[in-house]
Amino acid sequence: MKCCVPGLVCAALVSTTVSGQVPPPTFRSEARLVTVNASIQLGRRPLLGLTAADLVVLDNGVQQTVVRVDYATVPLDVTVIVDVSESSLSALKGIERDAARVTSFLRPTDRLRVLAVDTYVHELVPMSPVRTMTVQSPTTIGGWSAVHDSIAAALLVPAEPDCRQLVVALTDGGDNTSGTSPEQLVNIARATDSALVIVHTRLGPRSSGVTNRLPYLIGQPDLRALEEAARVTGGEVFRESAFGNNRIEAVEHVIEEFRQSYVLRYVTTGVEPKGWHDIEVRIKGRPDASVRARRGYFGG
Amino acid sequence: MTTTLRLPVTLVLTLTTALALVAGASAQRRSEPEELLALYDRGVYELFDERLRAFAAAPTSVETFTRAADRWMGSGFSSTRRRLVAAAVTVELAAVLSNWSAGPALMDAGRGWLSGSAADWARQWYRAAIGAALAHGDTDLVLALRDVQADAPRIMPSYREYANLALRQFPDDPSFMLFKAIAFELKSATGGSAQWFDRDAIDRHVKSLKRGRDGRPTVQLPANARMDVASAERLLRPDMADLPDVEFVAGISLRLWRVVNMFQDLQRNRVVAAEATLRLAVTYERLARPDLASLELARALDSPASPFVTYSVHFLRGRTFERADRLDDAEAAYRKALGAVPNAQAASFALAPLLVASARRLEAESLAAGALRFPLTPDPMKIYGGGDPSHMDDALARMRQELQ
């Protein structure tokens, strides 16, 4: 069973998993297993030790029963996107070294994927266990940037059972050659279980010439779409400068923070399966706790 | 009377071996460019291509290459053939250079070796050379700026204008007319999305500009303003000359209308009609006339089209449909684009969100995976400014064929 995807769950499974808790079937007997990554904090510290009984989850305003809560133990599938559109080839040589450093923050059960983005999206490291990872560095660089496509590619991966997905994009936000429009990027983000975190890097010197660009595809750095995409997944936007412009430190921070978040799972009950579902997560009796979680999902 | 020279078999064998050794030693002494020239000359293209890519990836010294080529040309029996081989290798090398800075000088060297070549061979050489220059974004090598801007600063004497050189020799060749139009199109490049100013809007603007001339800050014509030819010419009248930015903005509109005319002329030639129509549509978009662009896109495939053109037309139609919220038509258009160039990233990532939105996520995932498959498929939308590479590929293949 792919437990990371809001897949269809038959009514029988629902009845055995949350026996006696299914409300009257006012909707079709399709139910979905929904996974929610939730970062729960008191001030700047994670709030530890919560159980299903401490959590209130609303799906389109209807309270759901959390069937499972995991914390820190679930393996991670991490995709790191590196924007190389303004880099030199020699700078690319550092990718292998950087990827090796990122693996040092990961556990043996975690997996890592590395995408590089310039005019095209390149898969330098396919999703693989950290021990078997090999890096295929690009041999040429185009000067444009398909950042939206790279994030779409990262979010459009099949989810593996019993793991959760984190996408970390290191980018200045500039995009001038993506097929994915900013609006569509947000739509894809709405339909994913992955958490998207943007590490906003310094703005590189955009290629000034527009000779090879299409007017349709010309774009200026526009963080709004990226911020919105991150927000709907429960992720956020960091500035690289907050980490002394050290990208690896930024990635380490993002991974650690994500690891310390909760994974909640519930089977939808009492809601129309199709369409957009708003999700709200609260902590019982802790109004002082802040929760950052995906804002919803698209039910198809 | 015929004299037959009879040599003992052992002596013949010894001489043969000695000659082979000398030849081998000489081959070992050959420089890398000479090796490339020899491989091309012998038609060993697989190995040639492999060595060429490695050679082009390293910093290329034009002087080293031309010196080696001169040496190689002087050492053979047929200097005419060797000159053609050298000319062909320069353009093959230029096409795959990782750093284009050596490209123009290489081309010039190759062009110098063209003399004495058959007309059709020279035609293919120019097609390949201009194709390579465009693929590397070097419109200067193809067309001088003064062709585009009457008021352009004086250009360096080394300006090459290959399109004009080729057209002087082959005045009716539609490829060179297309190349010239593409170079013109790219030299009229503008950023950002254009905004159409109709006659009334221009009038209102001119009035507001005039009101502001008494020392107060004036309202500038937006840099992305586009207008018809009459309005642009009106703004360029001497009495308007001191209005801020008018010359710049009106000048862009006029240049884009010249591009329109060039592509309209080329639409009459069936060989290049499809690409000319595609580019005409893009130019209309840049003039903020999506209505005219849509009409051209709808008829772009009436003439035979390469996968580059077919993909681009369907992709852009998909974009148009998407803007009009005609999502089923957009999906069909993106699928047709991918039918022409499978796994191309722009269309794959344009189609994938439509599939996700209609609960076909698995297909979207598969599409995304295909688009990342190594080696990546060159995407026509990302190389649009380089022209259709099939022109260059075809010319390079024909040169090889001719020389065998």
- Topology as H/E string of chain A? EHEEEEEEHEEHEHEHEHEEEE
Give the overall pLDDT of chain B as a whole number.
85
By DSSP (H or I, 4+ residues per run), the number of helices of chain A equals 6
Q: Please provide the count of β strands of chain B.
A: 2
Q: Biggest interface between protein chains, with counts per chain?
A: A-B, 41 and 50 residues
Largest sheet of chain B: 2 strands, parallel
Percentage of helical residues of chain A?
Answer: 10-25%
Shape assignment of chain B? globular
Distance between the termini of chain B: 38 Å
Rg of chain A (CA only): 20 Å
How does this model look, in words?
With 300 residues, chain A is an alpha+beta fold. Chain A contains six helices and 16 strands. In chain A, the strands form three sheets. In chain A, strands 1, 2, 3, 6, 13 and 15 form a six-stranded antiparallel β-sheet that branches. A six-stranded mixed β-sheet of chain A has the order 9-8-7-10-11-12, sandwiched between helices. A four-stranded antiparallel β-sheet of chain A has the order 5-4-14-16, with no helix packed on it. Chain A starts with 7 loop residues before the first strand and ends with a strand. Chain B is mainly α and 404 residues long. Chain B has a domain at 138-296. Chain B has a two-stranded parallel sheet. In chain B, helix 7 (119-135) packs parallel to helix 11, helix 7 (119-135) runs antiparallel to helix 21 and helix 19 (345-357) runs antiparallel to helix 20 (361-371). The radius of gyration of chain B is 27 Å and the shape is globular. Classes of the chains: A alpha+beta (300), B mainly alpha (404).
